[in-house]
Amino acid sequence: MRLTRGVDYGARGAIYLAKQPPETVVLVGDIARYEGLPESYLAKLFQDLSKAGVVRSHRGARGGFSLSRPAAEITLKQIVEAIEGPLALCPCLSPVESCDRLATCGMYPFLCGVQQQMTSMLEGTTLQAIADQEATLLAG
Hints:
- The structure is a single chain.
- Helix content is 53%, strand content 6%.
- By secondary structure, the chain is mainly alpha-helical.
- Helix 1 (5-18) packs across helix 3 (39-51).
- The longest helix is centred in the last third of the chain and has 17 residues, at 107-123.
């Protein structure tokens, strides 16, 4: 399983915002240039993050984006789901799909456990923790 390029880019953009002073508004073009990301794609991803309440869009002469709340309150799971929708390792674990073999599938309990661990890791990882880790790596 791989996280999509959209999740990677969206997370990198949100982490960039997490490294800024609180409530700083940044142009998506500035984030794209700093992170080496395609601006038009990042702008689309930030619209998804805005709809999900992860970032806030600011209009006008001082427009751009900021985090919607402190970085310590935003998880990677929220970013993944804002961009990709609900987490589902496979179709049988999706809240919008179903499988008629669940009662007899030997893989189902195993896959449930894997998805639960993945969800727990994503829920337990905040933008602040990643920003702090990057600061430590750069300082060391």
